[in-house]
């Protein structure tokens, strides 16, 4: 790969599905340009259906439940710990996702860490309420912008904490004298989708009235049926939040340039999981393992690296060893992922077998609270290669197989009795074997984590998770 850089910025974006970026009328020109300048992995896959199941791979290159039934990063070295031990300054700023806090070990190794989960007031801990405030004040924001000659880049009520996140990240870059690793996690694209009015106008030619926006959120919040008009509104609001994140990333890149470190910095961008818009009957990211939740963007740029697209499937557990290689630091021996930094120098990424992802489902898909521990429900495990998706329900034994080449939306289950197709035995044997191996590994985990978190969530974390819909 090209010579090691001094700095790496890791941008993770909550609930960002891969097919939301690019294309005609793209909501993400900054991210699209990064993809064009660097390496884009068009078969990158999250290793869980939502944040607490995905992020142990992103920061620890180990699967969730690797050390027992609880969520959280493994006790083996985190990415930040590995870099900090090598003398790299580390900063991590998470826009108030309660699952990415010190309670589950995500602060480990960071010289500066801010999850923005605190007791600083009711609105600060309840993005749903903030979202309604922002929607309700949007007409006044537009009027004030026109009268004041200013813009409305940022919302009046920063439901996503994007402003604070960006400010902390900017200060970290501006005060770093040597090499650094910076991680920022955006929450704008997580429900409720509440983009600033300007960003909404940038992604839609249709005028969205206040009551239409409020009505769409109200219908989904009440669990009512979602018609095509409401679904279209939600998807446009989602695109608006992508535009909002995209412009924030652009400002962060401008900060790197103004500080004079852009030419010594590699950028890694990833979604932690996707988002469903009735693709398989629901909204948000309930416990399922279809591609709208598993297929995520993964982009890597290097000042001296090549550009191109990698088709070989990779999991997000490649991120820690890749970041280490970009900085010239040895990866941790305990990590299961392998670096893909060689793609920046035109090297082929070898096939390392199917990518395995998991979910835990309660008595129904929409069970509340949404399962967050392994014993909270049935373990669902998928194995994917470049063509096939295999999903197994480990208790009931229900199996599904999809050929994404002929069935990209994963609609025709080749294991179903009424299917017109036939599940090829070699494919089933190979992918079911990968699932069995993964489950066997989890079953051999000790009863408890080696760095068992403190008993119970703090009131602040519980409030934040409730506000995000995780009752």
Tell me the β content. 15-25%
Q: What's the number of extended β-strand segments? A: 16
How far apart are the first and last residues' alpha carbons, in Å? 45 Å
Largest sheet: 8 strands, mixed
| H and E string | EHEEHHEEHHHEHHHEEEHEEEHEEEEHH
| Spans of at least 5 consecutive residues with low confidence | 119-129, 448-454
State the share of residues found in helices, binned by percent.
25-40%
**Biggest sheet, spatial arrangement of strands:** 5-4-6-1-7-10-2-11
**CATH architecture verdict:** 3-Layer(aba) Sandwich
Supply the number of helical segments.
Answer: 13
Radius of gyration: 21 Å
The tally of domains stands at: 1
What structural class is derived from the secondary structure elements? alpha/beta
Please tell me what the overall shape is.
Answer: globular
CATH class: Alpha Beta
The CATH homologous superfamily is called: Alkaline Phosphatase, subunit A
In CATH terms, what is the fold-level topology? Alkaline Phosphatase, subunit A
